[in-house]
Amino acid sequence: MKDRDFLTIINEGFINAGRYFVAIASILTILASGFLIFAGIWEFINGIPNILDFLFKHEGHRVELAVHFISAIDLFMVAVVMFVMGIGLFELFVDKDQAIDYPQWLKIHNLNDLKEKLIAAAVVVIVITFLKHIVMWKDPLETLYFGGSIAIVIMAITFFSRLVVGDESRKKKTEESK
């Protein structure tokens, strides 16, 4: 075995210590996703009186009902994204021995897999946010501007995904085929 210099030993120590920092980040991200799920449940429960009023007294507006449930769905989606990111960080940086048998949809082999899942989930959350805005429709011009800005963001995300993540995925597949 080669003699290693002092800086190499320090760097190795940082890498080993980094696993624990990422483990903390992963655990906190998963816990935050749990809190968001409870917040979504709370939002859902808060919508139940509006449903009962609407069904039995024919009071209230369907818009209020939709906003409660779309808000709950939005919270659930963000919670799922955070859960996947937390598990992905753990899988990539902490679980070196692959001791946990992850389901196929949650297997993350590299940082690009994690980026792809984050990008796809971010687009869904953006679309849900736009849906909530459509339901609360007040000013058509404002809704048009909001939709246009969301379209620009989604196009930018798609461009980034194709350019950066897609390019790295193509390089990986090319290398694997050789």
Describe the structure.
This protein has helices at residues 6-57, 62-94, 111-135, 140-177. It is built from four helices and no strands. The model has no long low-confidence stretch (mean pLDDT 83). The chain has one domain (21-171).
Please supply descriptive tags for the structure shown above.
83% helix, 178 residues, elongated, single chain, mainly alpha, 0% strand
Short description:
The protein is mainly α and 178 residues long.
Low-confidence stretches: none
| Helix share, percent | over 70%
How many beta strands in the DSSP annotation?
0
Number of structural domains: 1
**Mean pLDDT across residues:** 83
Rg (C-alpha, Å): 22 Å
Beta-strand fraction estimate = under 5%
**First and last CA, distance:** 32 Å
Largest sheet: none
Give the helices and strands as they follow along the chain.
HHHH
Helices and strands in order, then pairings?
Elements: H1 6-57, H2 62-94, H3 111-135, H4 140-177
Helix pairs in contact: 1-2, 2-3, 3-4
